Amino acid sequence: MAGAYQFRPMTTADLPQIKRWLALPHVREWWGDPAEQSALVGGDLDEPAMDQFIVITGGADIGYIQCYDLTAWNSGFGAQPEGTRGIDLFIGEPSMIASGHGSALIRAFADQRLAEGVPRIVTDPDPANARAVRAYEKAGFQKAGTVDTPDGSALLMVRDR
């Protein structure tokens, strides 16, 4: 069952765990090639527009979340309020899937960012990823239409302060 979550800033020491998680079938299905994604995640550690976190609950690392400024890369999201942040995440540990952790950790993370003054949080799950869409909806996100991204068509979802 879902519980309290901490979001620890990711470091290079976390890269082997990220690589292991990205290779698991339930993550690979939506994130794609593990080697490519591992290189991108690792490369973003020095990206000033990107904040990366390891999700912890019950003293255990269970997943990854990235929170980023909207840039030219994701301009397909359309006009958004100044200060809007985007998020992407996965639960890495298979035992934590389908037990309410997704929506609960999304809500906890979004609540923290909104309380810090972020006006809106956006995300863009694959429309076919019903589990992710459901988790975002349970965490208070609303469907805002389909957008074209460098990775293909996506469902834009938003949560406002």
Give your account of this protein's structure.
With 161 residues, this protein is an alpha+beta fold. The chain has a single domain, classed as Aminopeptidase (3-Layer(aba) Sandwich). The chain is built from 5 helices and 7 strands. The protein has a 7-stranded mixed beta sheet, covered by helices on one side. Helix 4 (101-115) links the parallel strand 4 (85-91) and strand 5. Helix 1 (15-22) packs antiparallel against helix 3. The longest helix is centred in the last third of the chain and has 15 residues, at 101-115. It starts with 5 loop residues before the first strand and ends with a strand.
CATH class categorisation: Alpha Beta
Describe the largest sheet: 7 strands, mixed
* CATH homologous superfamily designation: Gcn5-related N-acetyltransferase (GNAT)
| Count of domain modules | 1
Q: pLDDT below 50 for ≥5 consecutive residues: which ranges?
A: none
* Coarse structural class: alpha+beta
Number of helices: 5
> What is the mean pLDDT?
92
Q: Measured on Cα atoms, how large is the radius of gyration?
A: 15 Å
Topology as a string of helices (H) and strands (E): EHHHEEEHEHEE
